[in-house]
Design brief:
This protein is α/β, with parallel strands linked by helices and 248 residues long. It folds into 2 domains: 6-142 and 205-246, Rossmann fold (3-Layer(aba) Sandwich), CATH 3.40.50; 146-203, Single Sheet (N-terminal domain of TfIIb). Helix content is 27%, strand content 34%.
């Protein structure tokens, strides 16, 4: 399963992600909402970095993720934060089942690309729509097809004192999937290291496909934005955001 081993060093390898800036961007969209935003779902919350920040800013947070290993780290990261500690749920996107309604749902850092079957993603959008309050906001981002195609054949290295990860990206035009093969080395004892392997996949969704899936799920007022920008995406951008609202 993806993140079975990478979860142990995920936060260290993503220290370059400016979660504060992401939280600021999310709140800019919240500020445009006619519905006051209080209860927020962080879908595919991972280790809970964004969940924690939004909880500290006063939102009632729910985090959901398919990986129980990531959720264990999210529980540690979110313990004691905010006026109300976030609720964490072990759920796949397409099986989302909440205890009540939410004012907004965010799904960040290309988590949507990880749903590699459009049927599952359609069901995930429908589940989000079901639990949103009328007028509620659904905000998510994707790696664009151009970006995923451009990664083909590239190799990357992430490292710190106790772990390093070598990964290669391979894009299949037929499958429209970018596969990341990862070799993860973690310090065990002294000079001993443990080697693990993981495979991650991201599907190259065309923006028009995602708009169609959102409309089929019942969303309206669907807009696209550039990477952490409050404007339409420009040609060649590697990441774009979608903001969709549920009819009042």
């Amino acid at each position: 399963m993806a993140y079975e081993y990478l979860a142990q060093c995920y936060d260290q390898f993503t220290e370059d992600v400016d979660y504060g800036r992401w939280a600021d961007y999310v709140e800019k969209h919240f500020a445009r909402s006619k519905l006051p935003i209080h209860t927020v779902l962080d879908l595919a919350c991972g280790t809970g970095s964004l969940t924690r920040l939004l909880a500290q800013r006063g939102y009632e947070m729910i985090g959901a993720d398919l990986s129980d290993v990531l959720l264990a780290h999210a529980e540690e990261n979110c313990r004691g934060v905010g006026f109300q500690e976030p609720i964490l749920l072990h759920q796949a996107m397409e099986e989302l089942d909440l205890y009540g309604t939410i004012d907004a749902c965010v799904c960040c850092l290309d988590s949507v690309n990880y749903v590699t079957r459009s049927g599952k993603l359609a069901r995930a959008f429908q589940r989000v729509h079901t639990f949103l309050m009328p007028g509620g906001l659904f905000l998510f981002d994707i790696n664009t097809p151009d970006k995923l195609r451009g990664l083909d054949g590239q190799m990357f290295l992430d490292e710190n004192e106790d772990a390093y990860c070598v990964w290669r990206a391979d894009y299949s035009p037929r499958r429209r999937v970018c596969t990341y093969g990862m070799d993860i080395f973690q310090r065990a004892e002294g000079d001993l290291w443990q080697r693990c392997e993981e495979v991650h996949e991201e599907f190259a969704y065309e923006p028009e496909e995602l708009e169609d899936l959102l409309r089929q799920a019942g969303f309206r007022q669907i807009k696209q934005y550039g990477e952490l920008r409050m404007r339409a995406p420009k040609a060649g951008e590697g990441r774009i955001f979608f903001a969709a609202r549920k009819d009042t």
